[in-house]
Write a structure and sequence with these properties.
Bound molecules: iron/sulfur cluster
Largest sheet: 7 strands, mixed
Order of helices and strands: EEEEEHEHHEHEHHEHEEHHEHH
């Protein structure tokens, strides 16, 4: 179901726990709640996040007004993460321009930005991202789980194909935006194979990605189990039984050949000189700002 509702809130931005810094972000926020892209493995469907009717997109009353108040009073101009629980370029963003409005505020107050998306709508905001990147750090993660467009259509039914997502990445890089691939989740028995990993790393390199990152596994929390099993059984009849046998009620489901696949992944990345270590990626995308700061001291 695709329409927008508004919910009340008092805060938009949350300071990130320094011990759990995902891509070196300092603040995170979700301008939207819910997502209509329909990925069958989506962790945000979990009861943990208390988002009822997940396929309905909601935003918050006065979202940009509250965000501006928060940005204008924070002294530390860190990196703000958009969309960990919902794609910030969902099907309603073209009309409502809430993500775009937030980027304009980020630019106005001199913050950095970290965006996860599967949508080509991000190309609309290239000029804004370039402006933000002049004064602070920008990192864009294009989420790609399979190199196979047919499989992607099944796993992520309302999203553009993987091939198109690589094109988006290529365009971002041509415009000098720091961007790479987020290869997560990696689904046991479905995408956890060397052929898929080899193809994704190669295509990331062909798209001139700055990095590729994976956690090589998936999470299956409470009610996400049922949604995922119902769908994955349509693709491979009875596969949910293999999941139940191997993982039981585990939340973290790593591929059976986890260490071997991770080693293979790192080897492939090294072959193309692609960054794949979280610490190195953070250092690299924040380097530009440090260089600018040093230059301005002289
Ligand atoms: S795009 Fe992200 S938030 Fe939306 S359904 Fe897919 S995994 Fe979930």
């Amino acid at each position: 179901m695709v329409f927008i509702e508004y919910v009340k809130t008092r805060t938009i931005m949350t300071k990130t726990d320094q011990g759990k810094r995902w891509f070196g972000i300092d603040y995170h926020m979700n301008l939207y709640r819910g997502c209509s892209y329909g990925c069958i493995y989506c962790d945000s469907r979990s009861d943990t996040y208390h988002i009822k009717n997940f396929d309905v997109i909601r935003s918050k009353v006065d979202v940009l007004k509250i965000l501006e108040e928060e940005l204008s009073t924070k002294s530390y101009k860190g990196v703000v993460s958009f969309g960990t629980l919902s794609d910030p370029y969902n099907e309603q963003e073209e009309k409502y321009k809430i993500t775009r409005g937030a980027l304009e505020l980020i630019k106005k107050y001199g913050f950095g930005v970290s965006i996860d998306t599967k949508s080509d709508l991000i190309l609309r905001d290239i000029e804004l991202l370039q402006e933000i990147q002049k004064n602070n750090s920008v990192i864009i993660k294009i989420s790609i789980t399979t190199a196979d467009d047919k499989l992607a259509k099944f796993l992520e039914p309302n999203v553009i194909s993987s091939s198109k997502r690589f094109e988006v990445l290529k365009t971002l890089r041509k415009n000098d935006i720091y961007a790479g691939v987020l290869m997560t989740p990696v689904l046991p028995f479905v995408t956890d194979n060397e052929d898929n990993i080899r193809k994704i790393v190669k295509k990331a390199s062909d798209s001139n990605a700055n990095f590729i990152y994976t956690k090589m596994g998936m999470t299956l929390r409470s009610n996400v189990h049922d949604y995922y099993y119902k769908n994955i059984d349509k693709l491979y009849v009875g596969l949910s039984n293999d999941y139940k046998t191997v993982y039981g009620n585990n939340v973290v489901c790593n591929p059976l050949k986890y260490p071997d696949l991770l080693e293979f992944f790192v080897k492939e990345c090294n072959k193309y000189h692609l960054l794949c270590d979280m610490g190195e990626i953070i250092k690299d995308y924040k380097r530009k700002v440090k260089l600018n700061e040093q230059i301005s001291l002289f």
